[in-house]
Design a protein that fits this description.
The protein has 105 residues and is an alpha+beta fold. The protein has one domain: 2-Layer Sandwich (STM4215-like), CATH 3.30.2000. The chain is 21% helix and 46% strand. It contains two helices and seven strands, in the order H-E-E-E-E-E-H-E-E. The strands form two sheets. A five-stranded mixed beta sheet has the order 1-2-5-7-6, covered by helices on one side. A two-stranded antiparallel ribbon has the order 3-4. A hairpin with a 4-residue loop joins strand 6 and strand 7. The longest helix has 13 residues. The radius of gyration is 15 Å and the shape is elongated. 20% of the residues are buried.
């Protein structure tokens, strides 16, 4: 799986999706995703298995459990596991639910 596959899979959640940020933000809720780091598996002095860590960010005006379920369903359908956290962004008056996923290439 690569970044394009992740994008395609996230669109199945039914919300606008962009890498890192939208040039003009659409109506909430929407999804942004970005590469964070790699966590490659090393063996025999080589990067044996490529593993990329991505942040998938769901932004919403209110706590939106239906949107969260849609994102989680999209991630599960791609065979991805995730960890999840949530913050309220006071300056933007919106919620961010952050999913951290590992994508094996």
């Amino acid at each position: 799986m690569n970044a394009e596959d992740l994008y395609t899979g996230l669109t199945a959640a039914g919300y606008p999706v962009a890498y890192r940020a939208f040039k003009t933000a659409p109506a909430l809720p929407y999804i942004c995703y970005l590469f964070v780091t790699d966590d490659d598996f090393h063996a025999d002095d080589a990067n044996y298995q490529r593993i990329d860590e991505y942040a998938v960010e769901l932004y919403s005006k209110v706590k939106d459990e239906a949107a969260e379920a849609a994102v989680e369903s999209a991630l599960a359908s791609m065979g991805l596991t995730w960890s999840k956290s949530e913050v309220f962004i006071d300056s933007e008056d919106m919620y961010e639910v952050l999913y951290t996923v590992s994508v094996v290439r």
